[in-house]
Design brief:
By secondary structure, the chain is mainly α. The chain has a domain of 84 residues. Helix content is 58%, strand content 0%. It is built from six helices and no strands. The chain is elongated, with a radius of gyration of 27 Å.
């Protein structure tokens, strides 16, 4: 009986050297700063020659190696986007923060608990309606 060999399907990992990966991430931010370019997750992934989903997969699948570097890079991008909120035309920035960084709008909802029976409620509604003039 032959032993089964586990095969890894798909493209091999683009980066196996953590130091090279970290250096390349730093180069991206330096390049953007030097050339006055905005930073973003897709821009970082493109600079690393991988796609955005691969970047997220590295963060998830390698939490002890690539994860901290990617988290730090994403934090820099999020900080940049947060600063963009103080400018004009922030719709795209808001969209990006909501969809890539988990930001959400929050509504304050107050629960006013009124002690009133159904009959009292109906009488109050009837008195409101009878008070209105048409």
């Amino acid at each position: 009986m032959k032993a089964k060999i586990k095969q890894h399907l798909g493209k091999p990992k683009s980066y196996s050297n953590i130091e090279e990966f970290e250096k390349k991430c730093s180069e991206y931010f330096n390049y953007c700063t030097k050339n006055h370019l905005p930073v973003g997750v897709c821009g970082l992934a493109s600079f690393l020659d991988i796609d955005r989903s691969t970047l997220y997969r590295y963060e998830k699948n390698y939490p002890d190696t690539f994860g901290p570097i990617i988290k730090q890079s994403r934090a820099k991008i999020e900080a940049y986007l947060e600063m963009c909120l103080y400018g004009k035309n922030v719709t795209g920035t808001i969209f990006n923060l909501k969809n890539n960084f988990g930001w959400a709008e929050r509504e304050k909802v107050e629960n006013v608990n009124v002690e009133m029976t159904y009959e009292e409620y109906v009488k109050k509604m009837e008195s409101c309606i009878s008070d209105e003039e048409y």
